[in-house]
Amino acid sequence: MDSFLSNLVPIIIVGLSLGSLFGLVGLAYTVIINATQLVNFGQGDFAMVGVAVCWALISKLGLPLWVAFPLAVVAGGAMGFITNAIIVTPLLKKDVHPFYPILGTMSVGTIAAGAVGIFTGFYWMPIEHFLGNEPLKLGGIPMDTQGLLIIGTTVAIVTVYWYLLHKTRLGLALRATGFNREVSLLAGIQVGKMASLSFVISGMIAAIAGVLCAPFSAFTATDGLILGINGFIALIVGGWGNPYAAVLGGILVGMIRALIVGYVSSAHAELATFVVLMVVLTIKPQGLFAGFMMPKTMNTR
Amino acid sequence: MWRNRKRDLMLICGVALVGALLPLGVPDFVRYLVVLVSIYGIAALGLNIFMGYCGQINLGSAGFFCIGAYLPTMLKVNYDVRFFIGFPLAVAFCALIAWLLSYPLLRLKGHAMAIGTLSFGMAVFLIAERFPSLTGGADGITVPPMVLFGEEVGDTFYYYLILVCFFLTYLVCYFLMSSRIGRALKAIRDDEDAALALGINISQYKTFAWVLNNALMGLAGALFAKQAGFLSPSTFALWTSISVLVMICVGGLGTNLGSVLGAAIMTLLPYILVSIQEYIMLTQGVILFSVLRFMPDGIVGTMPKLFRCNSRSKQVLIEQAEQAVAL
Amino acid sequence: MKVSRYSKGRVGMMLTVFMSLLLSSFMPSFAAEPINIGFTTDFSGPTATLTMVEAPVVEMVVKEVNAAGGINGRPINLIVQDNASDPAKAVGNAKMFKEKYNAKAIIAGVTSSVNIALKAWAEKNHVSVIAFDPQSDKLWDKKGKSWFFRSASPASQLVEASLARLKKLGYTKVAFEGTTLAWGTDTLATIKEKAHEYGIIVVGSTLAEPKTKDLSIQAKQLKETGAQALICSDYEAETVVFARALKAIGWKPFIIHTSAANLNASMSLSSPDMYEGWETVTIADSAKPLAQKVWSKAEAYTGKKIDHDEKAIRTYDAISLLVEALKKSGNPNDATAIRDAYYKLDNYERALGQKGGKGGFAVGRNHLLTAEGVVIYALKSGKMLAVR
């Protein structure tokens, strides 16, 4: 029993930090979904752009991390703004296949990945651990500082987002836009601006997630996609359109991966993620925590 | 209507004839490209049924492509089952899996369907890569030669086999889409509620389109296996699903001709951009972006509009093209 | 209805014109003055990071040869094509090199699966392929002359050198960490097969998925097996993750990494002090003057610092052997003559191998351009020092 527990503690820590990361990306998706009901397939590439900017500023210009990180977040936001302005809004105005705006986000993501790839030669863009490589010892258990940082940041961002969404007029407008576009227009909400804002916020969150993740395992220009997919899985497992559910879903996925590694096989954690997702889609397609902390009306499509 | 169809059929026959005569006068490489375009054409036609006509989304087509390629190969390697039995088996097996998956997946809507199909595709890819006992693992596996009546099948025979498969697929898609079924699928795409009100059995038609899509994916995979001569899981990664999707968008969603045209353009692109390989990803992104943004109907949907507006420029373009061919 | 009829005919016509234009552009162009050489490797895909180091070396040598007047006055024209880690694409590229560009020799990079496919193609189509990356033991077979050559050392050679080193240092209980991809699983199989010959017991093993973000659970599991030493066969990013995991759980076993190329890249991706005391095996000997020359030339050419390991060396060897074979063949338009010329290159000076810069090259067992020995390097304060 003792060895079972001593095995479980690191598994929980790894699961939490990995899960928070996926949850953070899932949250970034949800911000856009809340305002426009669209899935941004370029989300992972937003994160990658954040990493690329941060890496370039640090390694090419020699800026310190605390300058480069905010600039990378700004770049992520700009990426979101551009995506919305050049493809999503124009396509929403046209009568096209409902999947076209989503493909549009993917095409912008591919262009970003291709452009960064040319710039870096598809080589690694490493970023050092923010707080150094030395593990932090808490009660005799060594913990990775970057993992703790990710958990902390996720909690902070979720709190800020919750405050924005539920305690400010802007949040009310954002929620209203996602709930019913036409009625919001009638109520005098600038729907277009809200959509644009949601893309900017989403890009910023994605960039934060990317830069926090980069020290774990270095990024190349094409690595955004898989991070984006993991975030998407978090969001679907958690619950459509519910930011808190997306984070919980992410943590659940992270936990399952860590448990599989700990007790089954290290080589099949990724496969397990997809199998779990398909099981969730079969038994509870609306997500496991769909109603968590959100009124029911927000989850409708 | 009939005259329209006659013209189309003549066109198809004409292209088929060109294809059939091609091996006589061109080098191996051109034949290889025709084969590659035909295989991806079959895949694109299949995906177009489900996405273009039925308006659903499938991001897991590479999974079926993979099963279609590996099944006959592994049957041959492990149990010495002949390819000519393995091919139809692969198609049937893909159809069976698609039918089984239709119960959980087709209940989903939009994005949930996207991620559901995507995760199936990824799961198949990971199984192919991580279970060497089943598939030969990441190192890949050599496809044994195809034997017919005790003799190894030559490239020419195989070329015609693929060509026949392609044109049969095209004809099936062509007639299907102008039939009752095609109209029902389009009705579902345009407005599901209205289609329901018209008495169309939505789930039945969706399942039909889904199964047909993935059976054709399986066929494309089976043909691909023999053509490539070597299978490795990396051929069937997520990017393959996306690129087939890009093909039908570029050509024109919801048109058979567009699917084939898109398949041709996207397949040949890397062979056109020789020696500037680092730009391929960017180019693919820019092509997809431009098509979505500036001609959402794809090439086939946009070209006629372009030419109707300005018949003079059309004339000039055709003259130029003729000159280029003459040169 | 009328509209659609009108348009379909037009579109069909356009299609025909388009296709015929396309086909005409793919017809081969004969009577080429330069010697066309195909170069296929991963410019995209999971192993594209290797190409970043290796492709410039190929270009460098070709430019050098052309600047010196080419081969019998004919310049080499390199046709570069991406295969995205996909064997099917690689074979397509090879077909294009042969048919469209009339190339009589091909140089190829990166993954073993790509090169297994290319080898099969080369044997059938009689165009020689020389590869500089693949290490898989599956690439050897076939009696008699082959059409496939490589300058990389086979994985088993490095594994056996690692096991010998562990035996010499007196370790008997060893665990393994490697990638889930073929390299890792193949290495593990070789270790399990050969370990008893060196009196070593494999007490545990774990495989890490590509792009994994945390390996501390796996590291803890390996620690609990009671292993005294570790063998590591993982790609650069995952090696970083593993090193960090070891640090996080506070375990410092003796580690030997079976690829100096990957370990070197890991060190440039993270702080090198994490690898203090690790050892690695390579066939690129920094004591060889030619090896030093290749590294400094490549650095001058790319304007960047490059890793001092086999990545640049084996690439340099492959392309310069190809150039030498072209020269020796007498007729660079004859694919068979080029293939046969590879077998006549016995005393050609190459960067791999050890005998004072000479020799070291022989078309040995199964057409491997063998290097003569494996050098062991230990990592001390961020530097690789040879263990003599």
Q: Could you list the spans of chain A in which at least 5 consecutive residues all have pLDDT below 50? A: 297-301
Please state the CA-atom Rg of chain A, rounded to the nearest Å.
19 Å
Strand order of the largest sheet of chain B: 1-4
CATH topology of chain A: ABC transporter involved in vitamin B12 uptake, BtuC
Using the coordinates above, name the CATH class of chain B. Mainly Alpha
Number of strands of chain B: 4
What is the residue-mean pLDDT of chain B, rounded to a whole number? 85
How many strands, which pairing sense, and closed or not: the largest β-sheet of chain A?
A: 2 strands, antiparallel
Shape of chain B: globular
CATH architecture of chain A: Orthogonal Bundle
| Fraction of residues in β-strands of chain B | under 5%
CATH topology of chain B: ABC transporter involved in vitamin B12 uptake, BtuC
Summarize the biggest pleated sheet of chain B.
Answer: 2 strands, antiparallel
How many domains in all of chain B? Answer: 1
Architecture (CATH level 2) name of chain B: Orthogonal Bundle
Series of H and E elements of chain B: HHHHHHEEEHHHHEHHHHH
Could you name the ranges of chain B where pLDDT drops below 50 across 5 or more consecutive residues? none
- Global geometry of chain A: globular
List the helices and strands and how they pair.
The complex is a heterotrimer of chains A (301), B (327) and C (388).
Chain A: H1 2-36, H2 43-59, H3 65-93, H4 100-120, E1 136-138, E2 141-143, H5 145-167, H6 169-179, H7 181-186, H8 191-213, H9 224-238, H10 243-263, H11 269-283
Antiparallel strand pairs in A: 1-2
Chain B: H1 2-25, H2 28-53, H3 61-79, H4 83-105, H5 110-130, H6 132-135, E1 141-142, E2 147-148, E3 151-152, H7 155-177, H8 180-190, H9 192-197, H10 202-228, E4 230-231, H11 238-251, H12 256-272, H13 280-294, H14 298-309, H15 311-326
Antiparallel strand pairs in B: 1-4, 2-3
Chain C: H1 2-25, E1 35-41, H2 48-67, E2 76-82, H3 87-99, E3 105-108, H4 112-125, E4 128-131, E5 148-150, H5 155-169, E6 173-179, H6 182-194, E7 201-208, H7 216-224, E8 229-233, H8 236-249, E9 254-257, H9 260-269, E10 279-282, H10 289-302, H11 310-329, H12 335-342, E11 375-380, E12 383-387
Parallel strand pairs in C: 1-2, 1-3, 3-4, 4-5, 6-7, 6-8, 8-9, 9-10
Antiparallel strand pairs in C: 10-11, 11-12
Helix pairs in contact in C: 2-11, 3-4, 5-6, 7-8, 8-9, 11-12
